[in-house]
Amino acid sequence: MTKPPTRIQQRNRAAILSAGLDVFSQFGFRGTTLDQIAETAGLSKPNLLYYFPSKEAIHAALLERLLDTWLDPLKALDGSGDPIAEIMGYAQRKLAMSRDFPRESRLFANEILQGAPRIERILQSDLKELVDEKAAIIQAWADAGKIAKIDPHHLIFSIWALTQHYADFDVQVRAVLGDKAPYDGAAVFLESLYEKLLRP
Questions:
Q1: pLDDT for the residue numbered 177
Q2: Quick one: three-class SS letters along the chain?
Q3: pLDDT tens column, 154-190
Q4: Assuming Cys at both sites, which of 110, 153, 163, 195 could form a disulfide with 95, CB separation 3.0 to 4.6 Å?
Q5: Of 199, 77, 85, 66, which is closest to residue 123 (Cα–Cα)?
Q6: Domains detected in the chain
């Protein structure tokens, strides 16, 4: 029977994953080293290797944890709800994820930009199945005249682009906006944009 991890082990593992998220989201998988992660975590490299045998193992653990929650905003889109409210709710949930989990968003973006070598199977299975399921709901709403005629897959892609941009290009957004709070303005803009786009 495996002993449960001690409090120190739990703390060190959490520190490694948090440090890995920092470093991977900044430098990407190829640009990250175990030395960088260990230094950021405040641990020695041998101590880090006690918990994770490689940077691949740390990266895999981060992606697995990320994908557990990454699809939740789309899963919450309810086919029995008001169509426009449901779609705008999805857009706002995605925006909130960019605001609250910017490192995770950049980790995901880096993986996609590299051709998704570690999560391609999940993209082609779990992600595709979920997107197709929700696209069918959106298409049914459009066919029933409840929303404007619109390609549901490209609608979902547009929501990804318009929300994840704020996390993935945070430095650029803040350089342009200066002291303005980006997410407050983004929320208002998305509400107005999709209200006009979707109204039949």
A1: 95
A2: CCCCCCHHHHHHHHHHHHHHHHHHHHHCCCCCCHHHHHHHHCCCHHHHHHHCCCHHHHHHHHHHHHHHHHCHHHHCCCCCCCHHHHHHHHHHHHHHHHHHCHHHHHHHHHHHHCCCCCCHHHHHHHHHHHHHHHHHHHHHHHHCCCCCCCCHHHHHHHHHHHHHHHHHCHHHHHHHHCCCCHHHHHHHHHHHHHHHHHCC
A3: 999 999 999 999 999 999 999 999 988 899 999 999 9
A4: 163
A5: 66
A6: 7-64 (1.10.10.60), 71-198 (1.10.357.10)
